[in-house]
Amino acid sequence: MKTIMYIMLALLLCSYASAKDITATTEDGKKIILSENGTWKYDKKNEDKKNDQLITQQFTTPADSTSVYNAKRGNFIVKYNPSKWEILSTSLNQMAEASFQHSSGDAYAMIITERIRIPMENFDSIVVDNAQKVATNVEITNSEVRLVNGKQVKFIELSGVIQGINFVYNYYVYSDSKGSTQITLFTSKELYPEYKQDFTDFLNGFNAK
Question: Which residue, of 13, 29, 52, is where some domain finishes?
């Protein structure tokens, strides 16, 4: 939380300063460059290029996400809207510790955790490799780093074809010293516009402790 406060304060000061970038230090000692337009990135002079990730947006859990899923592994919870999502008694995937179904029945979510820490820059290729095991024409249509409830999370939007059906997947992937977490939501491409906001709200229920 302190890291966010430091960044917000620096951005506030930046709005009254000149157009020059400002260098700041986060709570964990990393150097970042704050730009006048409100974005920030790691200082390449102090961080390896592989960590040069640009946070494009900041998110918090929606107020109507009142139900809580407590992870069996990993130090996190997922808050969700119980009127839109229900947890399934049987998982959709043997690797998932929990699966959810939308109240309409046409969209799904899974939570997968593992004890291995994964560098953020590797998530794209891992997600694509896993998707290609079950789908064809796999393509990442969006990939960005977001600040979700105070933690850096990788968002990935991916499309693919399974048995002639076009699907769209949304991911939040996160990793720390306690392991890695993957939240996956999916539906058909034609229904995706209908569920896109519900997907975003579910993803933003992720809260790492």
Answer: 52
- The total domain count for the chain is 2
Q: List, for residues 64-98, the tens digit of each pLDDT value.
A: 999 999 998 888 999 999 999 999 998 888 889 99
Together in a domain, 168 and 132: yes
> What's the pTM?
0.73
Q: What is the pLDDT of residue 130?
A: 86
Q: How confident is the model at residue 32 (pLDDT cuts 50, 70, 90)?
A: low
Kindly report the CATH number assigned to the domain that includes residue 81.
3.40.1000.10
Domain that holds residue 155: 67-208
Cα separation, 97 vs 179, in Å, equals 14
